[in-house]
Amino acid sequence: xxxxxxxxxxxxxxxxxxxxxxLREQIAVHGPMPFSQFMERSLYAPGLxxxxxxxxxxxxxxxxxxxxxxxxxFARCVVHAVAPVLAALGDEADFLELGGGSGAFAAAALRAxxxxxxxxxxxxxxxxxxxxxxxxxxxxxxxPAELGxxxxxxxxxxEQDWRGVLFANEVIDALPTTRIAMKGGEVYEEYVALDxxxxxxxxxxxxxxxxxxxxxHVERDLGADFPEGYxxxxxxxxxxxxxxxxxxxxxxxxxxxxxGYVRREYYRAExxxxxxxxxxxxxAHADPLWLPGLNDLTASVDFTALAEAGNSAGFGVAAYxxxxxxxxxxGLQEAFESAHAQAADEAARYRLAQxxxxxxxxxxxxxxxxxxxLARGIEALPLPxxxxxxxxxxxx
Length: 396
Ligand SMILES: C[S@@+](CC[C@H](N)C(=O)[O-])C[C@H]1O[C@@H](n2cnc3c(N)ncnc32)[C@H](O)[C@@H]1O
Known about the structure:
Helix content: 40-55%
Structural class: alpha/beta
Strand content: 15-25%
Mean pLDDT: 95
Number of helices: 16
Shape: globular
Bound molecules: S-adenosylmethionine
């Protein structure tokens, strides 16, 4: 596995070894840990996890590229789609971004809001990683003062009722996922244990009632049991997580963009080892135990599960559609033409064309990523008519 991956430097290895020591100690004391806990430690252990430590992560110099890192078109389209909703909610409406990454989305979105004439009262960012918060602060410090003054970082989801728009790009794929295996008709959960030489290894243990119940719910919904030996992921905590982040959003819209599928595509029999992926310097690989802390770990999103979680929290699905259709229905053509007209040179125009391709081509982000809009407490939702017309919510 590791042989075709770029060789980490001595510093990187030492960093991963520190996290590895912590993980080993924890397993030695408490016994094997659920894979979800291993993923949580690998990504968020203070100072050592992938998102908590100082790695570059985003962009060409990092491990992966997200839509906001490609340029400003993605954020301009999101703003085009949601600005009328903010306007309809009035002067008190806020915009809350979950998982702000490098701050690229927030910077572009605030500029686009200003250009549209509809600014949120506050631009809130809920970012668990102290390192990323710092980068976001640095990036947003370059904004004009009247925009920068609207930005606030939250330590926890809003507890007071609020109105506005909640947005998250590639956040649900970073939630620590539970891995399950089917054996003899029973549900097992993957744990991370130590082998005789102290190396990390995955083992299966009978699943507890929460995990088994979540798996049985999916099987019932699909009308078929998972086959013997089937391995996959599930997020039993998703309804609780959504309730925690959006429970106080009394009127407004949530927009989630992520890679994923509707349930019957996610849990296809052929996808017999799930969707879990590790990313290291633009190389995707399948060994989540390799050099913990240096790899991004992600799993695709079951959008049917997200719709269910939204419904239980009191939100209705306003639209569900592939990213390409979402962006096209949200003014991509106009955003491209205006950026093209203002581009400084041929190289900038070329970059814009590449950006559109990466955002929309089916084998890039266009169809692998989906957009889901969930709403509550608004009578007539002022979303672009093209967006509502392109809704594929019946596929959920
Ligand atoms: C793959 S990155 C995406 C970053 C950014 N949205 C983008 O598109 O470039 C995942 C982000 O989600 C954040 N995150 C992870 N768990 C979170 C949670 N429970 N609530 C809010 N943000 C979270 C991470 O720290 C990171 O900023």
